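Reviewers of the previous submission asked for a worked example of the structure-prediction workflow described in the proposal, so we include one complete record here. The input consisted solely of the amino acid sequence. No template or homolog information was supplied to the procedure at any stage.
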Amino acid sequence: MPIDRLHDVLGRELAALEEQGRQKGSETVFTRVHPAQGESGPRFELESEGDKRFLRMNSNSYLGMSLRPEVIGAEEKASRAYGTGPGAVRFISGTYDVHLALERRLAEFHGREASMLFSSAYATTMGTLPPLLTGETAVISDALNHNCIINAVRLARPKEKYVYAHLDMGELEAALETASRNCSRAVIVTDGIFSMRGDHAPLREVVALARKHDRAFAENALVVVDDSHGVGAFGRSGRGTEEYTECDGVDLLIATLGKALGVNGGYVAGSEVILRFLREQAAFYIYSNPITPAEAAAALAAVETLDGPEGRELLAHLRAMTRRFEEGLVERGFETIPGEHPVVPLMVRDTARTSALVAHLKRRGVLATGLNFPVVPKGDEEIRFQISADHTPSDIDKCLAVLADFES
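From that input alone, the workflow returned the following structure tokens.
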């Protein structure tokens, strides 16, 4: 059946996105990865670029775990032992011992009673929040929270919704006070690291406000933190924003296996009772395949590396490279948002200039991602650089030199 009228409508929408400079465009296709050599970190070949090698400055792989031999070896060994796929969802055909081992290890790593795996961090948030947001619940969310939190709240049916200005603890407390008049439960939800800017939530203050107003809610005031960009990349031992802010009291911690840990999947850690409830009620867990046994084994190896001496060395190097890049931007007159997290934004504040600078970087062999409206607010257009423990001082200096050349 012809669908020409729909094609016309969608074509006009695509044309409008292109005209406004808001289209994401075609995806970068990698064809080969070259391991670190000499003073250079890994380099990447792209489709249609021949044998030209690129420095990647836009990866979430903050520790370079996906290229580490112990992680690759664990995945290969588990593939031979278990096969390549899980077969079905866990409640239908059972689970694998390596899934359970990873869940126990993640719970231990975060000092929680239990954890449970999802197919991705996005699915974790989508699966965790709706069952907890009842018709008697108020949900209170930071204005710059990730899209997965926004969509999870949309999927739910809470009694009241509040959005407080980014990091504004006064607005958060006002929302708690208002919600306590009509709601029996409050759920405060925030990113740990805000991925567009690299800044972090003041978790000690958030938890303190939740505890201050907890007795006003018959079913408590809960704090849920998505720290997907924090775990493995932030804090002395890589335990994320909780560790960095010296916070104790986050009720549910959501994180990913697909960024600093270098594999795939997501998880939530918390009390045994809440986790048992979610296993019964979280649709994105119940009706979706888990990560493969091989991915679970690789993630387990990554956690073991992170939680040992090599992990401390990787984190120390990551912090050093982040400082080197951030200080280099400032010395060259660029605007950035200071912080210790390896997301280092270069604030361009203009869509056309952002696109031109990204193109300049690519021509010179550096891959970076520009963020324009509506991904970020108008006036906040930026290039989000992401530093990795894979990067060397030479890599950082190369990127800085290319940026300085654009400005000259």
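The mean pLDDT is 94. We consider this example representative of the routine output the project will generate in years two and three.
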